[in-house]
Amino acid sequence: MSALRKMLAAHDDTALVALASAGLLRRAQAAQDAVLLSETEDMALLSVEGYEVVLDKGGPTKARCTCPATGICKHVLVAILRLRASLPLQGGPSAKAEITGLTLAEIEEFAGADWPQALRIAALSVKARISEDDSSCLVEMAAAPSPVTFVAGSGLNKALFDGPEGRRKRFIAAAALTLGGHALPEVAEAIGAVDATLLHDAADVVRRAMVHGLRGDAALAQDRLFDIAISARADAAPRLAALLRVAAVLAGRLSARDPNTDPTDFLTTLAECHALIRALTKAPSDTALTGQPRRDYQTAPPMDVVILGAMIWQASSGARGLTLHGWDGTRFVATGPARAAGADPTFSAKAAYRQSWWRGLSPQRMTGQRLHLAAPLLSVDGLLSQQSEGIEGGGPLTEQDLPFYDRVEDAIAELHAGLGIGLRASTRPQPILLRFARIASPRFDNLAQTHL
Protein backbone atom coordinates (compact mmCIF):
# COMPACT_ATOMS: atom_id res chain seq x y z
CA MET A 1 0.00 0.00 0.00
CA SER A 2 1.42 3.38 -1.02
CA ALA A 3 1.81 6.11 1.57
CA LEU A 4 -0.90 8.11 -0.21
CA ARG A 5 -3.43 5.28 -0.20
CA LYS A 6 -2.66 4.48 3.42
CA MET A 7 -3.37 8.09 4.40
CA LEU A 8 -6.59 8.24 2.38
CA ALA A 9 -7.79 4.90 3.71
CA ALA A 10 -7.85 6.43 7.19
CA HIS A 11 -10.41 9.00 6.00
CA ASP A 12 -13.63 7.13 6.76
CA ASP A 13 -17.09 8.57 6.07
CA THR A 14 -17.09 10.62 9.30
CA ALA A 15 -13.85 12.29 8.23
CA LEU A 16 -15.18 12.97 4.72
CA VAL A 17 -18.31 14.58 6.16
CA ALA A 18 -16.06 16.79 8.29
CA LEU A 19 -14.11 17.71 5.14
CA ALA A 20 -17.20 18.62 3.13
CA SER A 21 -20.77 17.78 4.16
CA ALA A 22 -23.06 14.77 4.45
CA GLY A 23 -25.01 15.83 1.36
CA LEU A 24 -21.88 16.22 -0.77
CA LEU A 25 -20.63 12.82 0.37
CA ARG A 26 -23.94 11.20 -0.62
CA ARG A 27 -23.70 12.74 -4.08
CA ALA A 28 -20.11 11.54 -4.40
CA GLN A 29 -21.09 8.00 -3.41
CA ALA A 30 -23.82 8.01 -6.06
CA ALA A 31 -21.50 9.33 -8.79
CA GLN A 32 -19.83 7.15 -11.44
CA ASP A 33 -16.45 5.67 -10.60
CA ALA A 34 -13.32 7.73 -11.12
CA VAL A 35 -10.66 6.75 -13.63
CA LEU A 36 -7.10 6.50 -12.27
CA LEU A 37 -4.79 8.10 -14.85
CA SER A 38 -1.47 7.83 -13.02
CA GLU A 39 -0.13 7.09 -9.55
CA THR A 40 3.14 7.23 -7.62
CA GLU A 41 4.01 6.66 -3.98
CA ASP A 42 2.94 10.18 -2.99
CA MET A 43 0.63 11.38 -5.80
CA ALA A 44 -2.37 10.25 -7.83
CA LEU A 45 -4.08 11.79 -10.87
CA LEU A 46 -7.69 10.84 -11.55
CA SER A 47 -10.39 11.84 -14.03
CA VAL A 48 -13.86 12.39 -12.56
CA GLU A 49 -16.78 13.49 -14.78
CA GLY A 50 -14.42 15.22 -17.20
CA TYR A 51 -12.39 17.03 -14.51
CA GLU A 52 -8.89 16.15 -13.34
CA VAL A 53 -8.22 15.65 -9.62
CA VAL A 54 -4.74 15.60 -8.09
CA LEU A 55 -4.21 14.04 -4.66
CA ASP A 56 -0.83 14.12 -2.97
CA LYS A 57 0.82 13.78 0.44
CA GLY A 58 -0.73 17.11 1.49
CA GLY A 59 -3.97 15.19 2.03
CA PRO A 60 -7.57 15.89 1.00
CA THR A 61 -7.46 19.53 2.16
CA LYS A 62 -4.67 20.20 -0.38
CA ALA A 63 -6.36 18.30 -3.25
CA ARG A 64 -6.70 20.12 -6.58
CA CYS A 65 -9.54 19.85 -9.07
CA THR A 66 -9.98 21.59 -12.43
CA CYS A 67 -13.69 22.27 -11.79
CA PRO A 68 -14.73 25.84 -10.84
CA ALA A 69 -15.85 24.91 -7.31
CA THR A 70 -13.87 26.20 -4.32
CA GLY A 71 -12.84 24.04 -1.37
CA ILE A 72 -13.50 20.29 -1.25
CA CYS A 73 -15.72 19.48 -4.25
CA LYS A 74 -17.67 16.35 -5.16
CA HIS A 75 -14.96 15.25 -7.62
CA VAL A 76 -12.29 15.23 -4.90
CA LEU A 77 -14.54 13.07 -2.71
CA VAL A 78 -15.17 10.66 -5.60
CA ALA A 79 -11.42 10.38 -6.16
CA ILE A 80 -10.79 9.67 -2.47
CA LEU A 81 -13.53 7.02 -2.43
CA ARG A 82 -11.96 5.39 -5.50
CA LEU A 83 -8.50 5.13 -3.95
CA ARG A 84 -9.83 4.26 -0.51
CA ALA A 85 -11.92 1.36 -1.72
CA SER A 86 -9.10 -0.69 -3.20
CA LEU A 87 -7.00 -1.17 -0.07
CA PRO A 88 -8.83 -0.25 3.16
CA LEU A 89 -6.64 0.32 6.18
CA GLN A 90 -6.35 -2.77 8.32
CA GLY A 91 -5.39 -2.72 11.99
CA GLY A 92 -3.28 0.00 13.54
CA PRO A 93 -4.20 2.41 16.33
CA SER A 94 -7.50 4.27 16.17
CA ALA A 95 -7.65 8.04 16.03
CA LYS A 96 -8.95 8.11 19.60
CA ALA A 97 -6.12 5.92 20.90
CA GLU A 98 -3.58 8.05 19.03
CA ILE A 99 -4.82 11.35 20.48
CA THR A 100 -5.42 10.09 24.03
CA GLY A 101 -1.83 8.84 24.02
CA LEU A 102 -0.49 12.38 23.70
CA THR A 103 0.94 14.01 26.79
CA LEU A 104 -0.10 17.40 28.12
CA ALA A 105 3.28 18.80 27.07
CA GLU A 106 2.83 17.58 23.48
CA ILE A 107 -0.58 19.21 23.20
CA GLU A 108 0.77 22.44 24.69
CA GLU A 109 3.64 22.43 22.19
CA PHE A 110 1.16 22.10 19.32
CA ALA A 111 -1.08 24.90 20.67
CA GLY A 112 1.79 27.33 21.16
CA ALA A 113 0.53 30.85 21.91
CA ASP A 114 -3.06 29.54 21.80
CA TRP A 115 -2.52 27.31 24.85
CA PRO A 116 -4.35 29.55 27.41
CA GLN A 117 -7.39 29.81 25.13
CA ALA A 118 -7.30 26.04 24.54
CA LEU A 119 -7.45 25.47 28.31
CA ARG A 120 -10.46 27.78 28.61
CA ILE A 121 -12.30 26.08 25.75
CA ALA A 122 -11.64 22.65 27.28
CA ALA A 123 -12.79 23.86 30.71
CA LEU A 124 -16.07 25.06 29.17
CA SER A 125 -16.57 21.75 27.32
CA VAL A 126 -16.29 19.07 29.99
CA LYS A 127 -19.45 17.37 28.66
CA ALA A 128 -18.31 17.18 25.04
CA ARG A 129 -19.96 14.64 22.73
CA ILE A 130 -17.46 12.11 21.37
CA SER A 131 -18.26 9.71 18.53
CA GLU A 132 -15.80 7.18 17.10
CA ASP A 133 -15.88 5.63 13.62
CA ASP A 134 -13.64 3.12 11.83
CA SER A 135 -10.54 5.32 11.81
CA SER A 136 -11.72 8.74 12.93
CA CYS A 137 -12.98 10.36 16.12
CA LEU A 138 -15.27 13.39 16.26
CA VAL A 139 -15.36 15.75 19.26
CA GLU A 140 -18.21 18.26 19.62
CA MET A 141 -17.49 20.89 22.28
CA ALA A 142 -19.98 23.37 23.73
CA ALA A 143 -17.42 26.18 23.43
CA ALA A 144 -16.46 25.48 19.79
CA PRO A 145 -18.25 26.77 16.67
CA SER A 146 -17.84 23.42 14.87
CA PRO A 147 -16.66 19.86 15.69
CA VAL A 148 -13.06 18.68 15.55
CA THR A 149 -12.40 15.40 13.74
CA PHE A 150 -9.21 13.42 14.33
CA VAL A 151 -8.08 10.98 11.63
CA ALA A 152 -5.89 7.94 12.37
CA GLY A 153 -2.27 8.60 11.48
CA SER A 154 -2.80 12.34 11.01
CA GLY A 155 -2.07 13.57 14.55
CA LEU A 156 -2.97 17.08 15.62
CA ASN A 157 -1.57 18.92 12.62
CA LYS A 158 -4.01 17.41 10.13
CA ALA A 159 -7.09 17.29 12.37
CA LEU A 160 -10.20 18.57 10.61
CA PHE A 161 -11.89 21.75 11.85
CA ASP A 162 -14.40 23.81 9.87
CA GLY A 163 -13.89 27.08 11.70
CA PRO A 164 -11.76 30.25 11.60
CA GLU A 165 -8.27 29.29 10.44
CA GLY A 166 -6.66 31.80 12.79
CA ARG A 167 -8.11 29.99 15.84
CA ARG A 168 -7.73 26.44 14.52
CA LYS A 169 -4.96 25.36 16.90
CA ARG A 170 -6.76 26.34 20.10
CA PHE A 171 -9.90 24.34 19.23
CA ILE A 172 -7.95 21.27 18.09
CA ALA A 173 -5.81 21.39 21.25
CA ALA A 174 -8.95 21.79 23.39
CA ALA A 175 -10.53 18.76 21.66
CA ALA A 176 -7.38 16.72 22.36
CA LEU A 177 -7.46 17.76 26.03
CA THR A 178 -11.14 16.82 26.25
CA LEU A 179 -10.67 13.50 24.47
CA GLY A 180 -7.70 12.58 26.64
CA GLY A 181 -9.48 13.56 29.88
CA HIS A 182 -6.44 15.55 31.01
CA ALA A 183 -6.47 17.40 34.32
CA LEU A 184 -6.38 21.03 33.23
CA PRO A 185 -3.79 23.33 34.79
CA GLU A 186 -4.91 26.71 36.11
CA VAL A 187 -4.97 29.57 33.60
CA ALA A 188 -3.24 32.70 34.84
CA GLU A 189 -5.59 35.67 35.17
CA ALA A 190 -3.33 38.09 33.36
CA ILE A 191 -3.55 36.26 30.05
CA GLY A 192 -2.99 38.36 26.92
CA ALA A 193 -5.37 40.42 24.90
CA VAL A 194 -8.61 39.37 23.26
CA ASP A 195 -7.79 37.74 19.94
CA ALA A 196 -7.81 40.22 17.02
CA THR A 197 -9.20 37.59 14.65
CA LEU A 198 -12.14 37.02 16.98
CA LEU A 199 -12.92 40.74 17.03
CA HIS A 200 -12.73 40.92 13.24
CA ASP A 201 -15.07 37.91 12.89
CA ALA A 202 -17.46 39.29 15.51
CA ALA A 203 -17.65 42.66 13.75
CA ASP A 204 -18.48 40.90 10.48
CA VAL A 205 -21.18 38.77 12.16
CA VAL A 206 -22.75 41.84 13.78
CA ARG A 207 -22.87 43.72 10.47
CA ARG A 208 -24.46 40.78 8.67
CA ALA A 209 -26.87 40.14 11.56
CA MET A 210 -28.35 43.59 11.16
CA VAL A 211 -29.30 42.86 7.53
CA HIS A 212 -30.39 39.26 8.12
CA GLY A 213 -32.29 40.09 11.30
CA LEU A 214 -34.39 42.87 9.79
CA ARG A 215 -34.63 42.14 6.06
CA GLY A 216 -33.46 38.56 5.58
CA ASP A 217 -33.30 35.37 7.60
CA ALA A 218 -33.40 36.22 11.32
CA ALA A 219 -32.81 32.55 12.20
CA LEU A 220 -29.49 32.69 10.32
CA ALA A 221 -28.54 35.82 12.27
CA GLN A 222 -29.41 33.98 15.49
CA ASP A 223 -27.16 31.00 14.64
CA ARG A 224 -24.19 33.15 13.67
CA LEU A 225 -24.49 35.41 16.71
CA PHE A 226 -24.72 32.40 19.02
CA ASP A 227 -21.67 30.71 17.43
CA ILE A 228 -19.49 33.81 17.75
CA ALA A 229 -20.74 34.32 21.33
CA ILE A 230 -19.41 30.86 22.25
CA SER A 231 -16.03 31.72 20.73
CA ALA A 232 -15.93 35.07 22.55
CA ARG A 233 -16.56 33.40 25.89
CA ALA A 234 -13.80 30.90 25.25
CA ASP A 235 -11.46 33.71 24.18
CA ALA A 236 -11.82 35.47 27.55
CA ALA A 237 -14.26 38.14 26.41
CA PRO A 238 -17.28 37.25 28.57
CA ARG A 239 -18.81 40.72 28.38
CA LEU A 240 -18.89 40.63 24.58
CA ALA A 241 -20.15 37.03 24.71
CA ALA A 242 -23.07 38.06 26.92
CA LEU A 243 -24.05 40.92 24.59
CA LEU A 244 -23.86 38.65 21.54
CA ARG A 245 -26.07 36.12 23.32
CA VAL A 246 -28.67 38.82 23.99
CA ALA A 247 -28.60 39.75 20.29
CA ALA A 248 -29.00 36.06 19.36
CA VAL A 249 -32.02 35.71 21.66
CA LEU A 250 -33.65 38.79 20.12
CA ALA A 251 -32.93 37.51 16.60
CA GLY A 252 -34.64 34.25 17.52
CA ARG A 253 -37.71 36.12 18.71
CA LEU A 254 -37.81 38.15 15.50
CA SER A 255 -37.57 34.91 13.52
CA ALA A 256 -40.56 33.54 15.47
CA ARG A 257 -42.53 36.76 14.82
CA ASP A 258 -42.83 37.41 18.54
CA PRO A 259 -45.26 40.36 18.84
CA ASN A 260 -43.62 41.48 22.10
CA THR A 261 -40.17 41.89 20.52
CA ASP A 262 -39.30 45.37 19.25
CA PRO A 263 -36.80 45.38 16.33
CA THR A 264 -35.37 48.55 17.85
CA ASP A 265 -34.15 46.51 20.82
CA PHE A 266 -32.31 44.22 18.39
CA LEU A 267 -30.67 47.19 16.67
CA THR A 268 -29.73 48.75 19.99
CA THR A 269 -28.05 45.54 21.17
CA LEU A 270 -26.15 45.20 17.88
CA ALA A 271 -25.00 48.81 18.28
CA GLU A 272 -23.71 48.02 21.78
CA CYS A 273 -21.89 44.97 20.39
CA HIS A 274 -20.36 47.12 17.63
CA ALA A 275 -19.21 49.78 20.11
CA LEU A 276 -17.67 47.19 22.45
CA ILE A 277 -15.86 45.45 19.56
CA ARG A 278 -14.36 48.79 18.45
CA ALA A 279 -13.28 49.57 22.01
CA LEU A 280 -11.70 46.12 22.43
CA THR A 281 -9.83 46.59 19.16
CA LYS A 282 -8.15 49.65 20.70
CA ALA A 283 -7.75 48.21 24.23
CA PRO A 284 -7.92 44.38 24.00
CA SER A 285 -6.45 43.85 27.49
CA ASP A 286 -8.68 46.27 29.42
CA THR A 287 -10.59 44.13 31.95
CA ALA A 288 -13.25 46.84 32.24
CA LEU A 289 -14.07 46.05 28.59
CA THR A 290 -13.37 42.31 28.42
CA GLY A 291 -15.14 41.42 31.66
CA GLN A 292 -13.71 38.81 33.99
CA PRO A 293 -13.31 35.21 32.75
CA ARG A 294 -13.04 34.10 36.37
CA ARG A 295 -12.39 35.62 39.78
CA ASP A 296 -9.47 35.04 42.08
CA TYR A 297 -10.39 34.99 45.77
CA GLN A 298 -7.78 35.90 48.36
CA THR A 299 -7.91 35.29 52.11
CA ALA A 300 -8.94 38.52 53.86
CA PRO A 301 -8.79 39.44 57.58
CA PRO A 302 -11.75 38.32 59.73
CA MET A 303 -14.78 40.54 59.22
CA ASP A 304 -18.33 41.14 60.38
CA VAL A 305 -20.85 41.51 57.56
CA VAL A 306 -24.40 42.83 57.78
CA ILE A 307 -26.56 41.07 55.15
CA LEU A 308 -28.90 43.76 53.85
CA GLY A 309 -31.04 41.79 51.43
CA ALA A 310 -31.22 39.35 48.55
CA MET A 311 -31.98 39.96 44.87
CA ILE A 312 -33.05 37.38 42.30
CA TRP A 313 -31.91 38.34 38.81
CA GLN A 314 -31.84 37.07 35.24
CA ALA A 315 -29.82 38.68 32.46
CA SER A 316 -31.05 38.99 28.89
CA SER A 317 -28.26 36.62 27.86
CA GLY A 318 -29.81 33.82 29.96
CA ALA A 319 -27.47 33.99 32.97
CA ARG A 320 -29.33 34.01 36.30
CA GLY A 321 -28.71 33.87 40.01
CA LEU A 322 -29.29 35.17 43.50
CA THR A 323 -27.17 37.97 44.97
CA LEU A 324 -26.87 38.74 48.68
CA HIS A 325 -25.77 42.33 49.37
CA GLY A 326 -23.89 43.14 52.56
CA TRP A 327 -21.89 45.84 54.32
CA ASP A 328 -18.60 45.03 56.04
CA GLY A 329 -18.20 48.36 57.81
CA THR A 330 -16.19 50.03 55.05
CA ARG A 331 -17.73 48.93 51.75
CA PHE A 332 -20.52 46.93 50.13
CA VAL A 333 -19.81 43.27 49.45
CA ALA A 334 -21.85 40.58 47.70
CA THR A 335 -22.15 36.82 47.44
CA GLY A 336 -24.57 34.19 46.20
CA PRO A 337 -25.10 31.41 43.65
CA ALA A 338 -25.28 32.07 39.90
CA ARG A 339 -25.28 30.11 36.65
CA ALA A 340 -24.08 31.07 33.18
CA ALA A 341 -26.43 31.05 30.21
CA GLY A 342 -27.32 27.49 29.25
CA ALA A 343 -25.65 25.97 32.32
CA ASP A 344 -27.43 23.75 34.87
CA PRO A 345 -31.08 23.93 33.73
CA THR A 346 -32.17 22.52 37.13
CA PHE A 347 -30.92 25.63 38.98
CA SER A 348 -33.61 27.81 40.56
CA ALA A 349 -32.76 31.11 42.24
CA LYS A 350 -35.98 30.92 44.27
CA ALA A 351 -35.01 27.50 45.58
CA ALA A 352 -31.44 28.71 46.26
CA TYR A 353 -32.90 31.39 48.56
CA ARG A 354 -33.97 28.63 50.96
CA GLN A 355 -30.95 26.35 50.54
CA SER A 356 -27.70 26.38 52.51
CA TRP A 357 -25.04 28.78 51.25
CA TRP A 358 -22.64 29.34 54.14
CA ARG A 359 -22.22 26.48 56.60
CA GLY A 360 -25.89 25.68 57.02
CA LEU A 361 -27.01 29.30 56.60
CA SER A 362 -29.53 29.92 53.83
CA PRO A 363 -29.92 33.38 52.22
CA GLN A 364 -33.41 33.51 53.73
CA ARG A 365 -31.97 33.04 57.21
CA MET A 366 -29.02 35.40 56.69
CA THR A 367 -30.98 38.42 55.45
CA GLY A 368 -31.09 41.15 58.08
CA GLN A 369 -28.46 39.43 60.24
CA ARG A 370 -24.92 40.26 61.32
CA LEU A 371 -22.49 37.46 60.38
CA HIS A 372 -18.91 36.82 61.41
CA LEU A 373 -16.48 35.50 58.78
CA ALA A 374 -13.38 34.09 60.43
CA ALA A 375 -11.51 33.42 57.15
CA PRO A 376 -13.28 35.27 54.33
CA LEU A 377 -12.24 34.70 50.71
CA LEU A 378 -12.70 38.02 48.91
CA SER A 379 -12.17 39.13 45.29
CA VAL A 380 -10.83 42.55 44.40
CA ASP A 381 -14.27 43.69 43.29
CA GLY A 382 -15.93 42.81 46.60
CA LEU A 383 -17.40 39.35 45.99
CA LEU A 384 -17.24 36.78 48.80
CA SER A 385 -16.66 33.12 47.94
CA GLN A 386 -19.02 30.38 49.12
CA GLN A 387 -16.00 28.91 50.93
CA SER A 388 -15.86 31.87 53.34
CA GLU A 389 -17.50 29.97 56.25
CA GLY A 390 -19.88 32.46 57.83
CA ILE A 391 -21.44 32.11 61.29
CA GLU A 392 -24.10 34.23 62.92
CA GLY A 393 -22.63 36.95 65.07
CA GLY A 394 -25.85 38.11 66.73
CA GLY A 395 -26.67 41.54 68.09
CA PRO A 396 -29.25 44.06 66.86
CA LEU A 397 -28.47 46.45 64.01
CA THR A 398 -28.32 50.20 64.62
CA GLU A 399 -28.32 53.13 62.25
CA GLN A 400 -24.68 53.72 63.08
CA ASP A 401 -23.84 50.31 61.55
CA LEU A 402 -24.92 51.35 58.07
CA PRO A 403 -23.96 54.13 55.59
CA PHE A 404 -27.29 55.95 55.18
CA TYR A 405 -27.67 58.95 52.90
CA ASP A 406 -29.99 61.75 53.99
CA ARG A 407 -30.19 63.36 50.55
CA VAL A 408 -30.85 61.61 47.22
CA GLU A 409 -28.58 64.09 45.45
CA ASP A 410 -25.60 63.02 47.58
CA ALA A 411 -26.29 59.34 46.86
CA ILE A 412 -26.49 59.96 43.10
CA ALA A 413 -23.25 61.95 43.11
CA GLU A 414 -21.49 59.14 44.98
CA LEU A 415 -22.81 56.55 42.52
CA HIS A 416 -21.64 58.57 39.51
CA ALA A 417 -18.19 58.89 41.04
CA GLY A 418 -17.89 55.13 41.60
CA LEU A 419 -19.60 53.68 38.55
CA GLY A 420 -17.44 55.23 35.84
CA ILE A 421 -18.63 56.40 32.43
CA GLY A 422 -19.06 55.04 28.92
CA LEU A 423 -18.19 51.45 28.10
CA ARG A 424 -15.93 51.26 31.14
CA ALA A 425 -18.82 51.91 33.52
CA SER A 426 -19.57 49.11 35.98
CA THR A 427 -22.33 46.75 34.84
CA ARG A 428 -22.98 45.37 38.34
CA PRO A 429 -25.84 46.76 40.46
CA GLN A 430 -24.54 49.17 43.10
CA PRO A 431 -26.50 49.32 46.39
CA ILE A 432 -27.16 52.56 48.27
CA LEU A 433 -29.00 53.14 51.54
CA LEU A 434 -31.37 56.10 51.85
CA ARG A 435 -32.80 57.23 55.18
CA PHE A 436 -36.55 57.81 54.97
CA ALA A 437 -37.64 61.41 55.46
CA ARG A 438 -41.12 60.14 56.20
CA ILE A 439 -43.30 57.08 55.68
CA ALA A 440 -46.85 57.73 54.43
CA SER A 441 -49.83 55.47 54.90
CA PRO A 442 -50.52 53.01 52.09
CA ARG A 443 -53.12 54.04 49.52
CA PHE A 444 -54.86 52.48 46.54
CA ASP A 445 -54.13 53.86 43.08
CA ASN A 446 -57.39 53.59 41.12
CA LEU A 447 -55.68 54.23 37.78
CA ALA A 448 -52.99 51.55 38.22
CA GLN A 449 -55.30 49.32 40.28
CA THR A 450 -52.58 48.60 42.79
CA HIS A 451 -51.68 49.42 46.38
CA LEU A 452 -48.87 51.92 46.90
Integer-rounded radius of gyration: 28 Å
Percent range for helical residues?
25-40%
Structural class: alpha+beta
The residue ranges in which pLDDT falls below 50 over 5 or more consecutive positions are none
Task: Please state the average pLDDT score.
Answer: 84
Strand element count: 20
Strand content: 15-25%
Largest sheet: 6 strands, antiparallel
Instruction: Give the helix tally.
Output: 16
Distance between the termini: 85 Å
Shape: elongated
Could you give a quick summary of the protein structure above?
With 452 residues, the chain is of the alpha+beta class.
Describe what this molecule looks like in 3D:
The protein is built from 16 helices and 20 strands. By secondary structure, it is α+β, with helices and mostly antiparallel strands. The strands form 6 sheets. Strands 10, 11, 12, 13, 14 and 16 form a 6-stranded antiparallel beta sheet that branches. It has a 4-stranded antiparallel beta sheet with strand order 1-2-3-4, with helices on one face. Helix 1 (3-9) packs across helix 4 and helix 9 runs antiparallel to helix 12 (263-282). The longest helix has 20 residues, at 196-215. 36% of the residues are buried. The model has no long low-confidence stretch (mean pLDDT 84).
